[in-house]
Structures are given as C-alpha cells and as structure tokens.
Amino acid sequence: MKDNYIIIIGGGLAGLIAAIHLRKNNYEVLVIEKNEYPKHKVCGEYISNEVLPYIKSLKLDIESLSPKKIDKLSFSLVSGKTINTTLPLGGFGVSRYQLDNYLYNEAKKLGCKVVQETVSDITFLDDKFTVSTNESYNYSKIVLGAFGKRSNLDIKFKRNFIQKQSHWLGVKSHYSLDFPNDLVGLHHFEGGYCGVSKVENNLVNICYLANYETFKKYKSIEEYQDKIVCKNPNLKKIFENATLEFEKPLTISQISFDKKKCVENHILMIGDTAGLIHPLCGNGMAMAIHSAKLASESAIDYFENKIDRNQMEQNFIKNWNYNFKKRITTGMRLGKLLQHEKLSQIIMNILVIFPFLLPFIINKTHGKPI
Description:
By secondary structure, the chain is an alpha/beta fold. The protein has helices spanning about 15-25, 50-55, 95-110, 150-155, 210-215, 220-225, 235-240, 285-305, 310-340, 340-355, 355-365; strands at about 5-10, 30-35, 45-50, 70-75, 80-95, 115, 120-125, 130-135, 135-140, 140-145, 170-175, 185-190, 190-200, 205-210, 245, 250-255, 265, 265-270. α1 (about 15-25) runs parallel beside α3 (about 95-110), α1 runs parallel beside α8 (about 285-305) and α8 (about 285-305) runs antiparallel to α9 (about 310-340).
C-alpha cells in the first residue's frame, strides 16, 4: 500500500470530482463504482454557478458538454399561481449521463484507476482501511464515501437514517419540449415538487419528488402524473406538450431527508452520502461538488502531516456544517411549509407583494462562489 493512496467508493459527481482534485495533487486514486458509464440518474440536472470557479480551477471544460445557461426561475403552487424571478447567481443545465461520463474520462486520462465492482464491506483497523468488493481487497489510509442516497453500506454501518422508512420517491425523464433555455421551473403539486429545465441536445429534464403514500394509490406513473401532478395547470401544460425520450421514466424510492453524519467509521462522506438538500432548493449538485473539494483538501492536509486523523475528521465536519447545515435546514423548513396548502398560499401572496423576498430565500439555500 502506497502512503498517498486514496480509495473513493462511488463514481458519481462527488466521487469523480474528488478523484480529479486528488490526482491533480499527485495522489494515487482508486474509484470503485458498481455501474457502467454513461448512465442516467434521477437528478434535477441543474448546477449553481457557485461552483464554476472551482470547476475551472480543475481545468474541466464543462462548455464542451454544451450546457444550458440558466438565470431565471418560475415558481408555482398547486393552484397554478406563479411568481417569476431572476436567480442571483444563475446556473447551468447538463445531464448526469453526459457530465458523469465526461468526468470519468477525465479522471482516467489523469491516471485515476476506476474499477466496476461492488463494495461489500469496509473495516478500519490499525489506522488503515480494508475495502472488500465482490472481486478484490484494497487497502488505504483514507476512504471517501460517495455512494449516493442509499446503499448496502448504509445498512452495513447501521446509519441512523437508513433505519427509518422514508416516504419519498423520485421520478425523472428527458423530454422533447418547447421550453426556454434560460429558465428553471419549480412547480408544487399535491405531495410533491417538480423541476423542469433544459439540458444539452435541446432536451428538457423533468424530475419530481413524490410522496409515496399518494403515489401508490395509482397503477402507473402516467396515471399518477395525470391525476395528481397535472392538477397544477403549469405542469398540465408541460406534460401535454412533452414527448418522452426515455423508454420509461427512471425512479428511485426511499429518498431520505433525515440528517446524515458526514464522517462515519472514519470515512469522509461526500455528496448525497453526507446529506440531501430538499429539491425545492435545486442545489444538490453544487453541494456535491463543493463537498468533494472540502474532503479532498482535508485528505491532502492529512497526508502532508499538517493534521492528524482526528483533526482531519473534525475539520471536515466543521467545514461541512459551515457550508451546508443552514442550507439543508432551510430547505427542510421550506418543504414542510409548502405541504400546508393554506400556508403556502399565504406565503405566495406575500412573495407577490414583496417579490424581492424570493431571491433572498434562494440565497439562503445557495453558497458564495468557491
């Protein structure tokens, strides 16, 4: 085992960004990812511009993916009442299919080792990790956990959130649809929220979060969308004019917004593995990228003997909380408020009278450029 060898479990957005960051600092990196590239994922596919300076510092050419520049937001309630605003920082739309595959190829070019295996266990003993997969054993002093919203490893570690049943289901697909390039739509419906925005190739990503208790009453996604999602007239118009480009929509169940620890069993957790922000805030991808930066910097400080393991873990926890804790809490509170129809109508009426409050709320769920 080399002294500067780092294992990253999960080759999604956070895992690949961390791999690239560490490799550019001359560290040996092994990424263990169970899926092949490219692959579609249930995701809003909107990234806040707050991470652009960091992406550029890694010399990643996101422009080569033809992302859509987005600087406007349209927000509506179930009734269809809508408020439009400009996004303070703006962002861009790009599919996970394209983005993850691009990052994977960049990581490989830099010399990162990426293997398609499934991690079955991780043990920590005598200041080093043993990572067991279906095909191999790997050893390292540092492990980053980037294995997503839910994993067999969460069960293995008996993480608190995984012990509780979650009632959220995510549904996503790409559509052909006449929709503005520079707009992200966020529309509330009974028991959920739907995000609509352009990605590359002139496609529109439609991704929504649904309450499973409501969803299970219907025989199919199509029936649920027709009977529940399309009660919002804005969404009704969108779906009536949209042509599905997938064979069928992608789904993911048991999405949990419960608090997650960002360090468990001495593993630095990044991206959705460390915590989810409510999709109402549309900032999960930027947070995943930022968390990869924080974990990579902590690992480098450790390897350079600037801090010991305990200090590394405490610094990462401190930086995670400083950058993300308030955002996640704000998102959860907003989500709960909008579950109450009368209260959400009152909030919307206030925003119509005082439209400057909406950008203020958006700022509360977004960070400054990094």
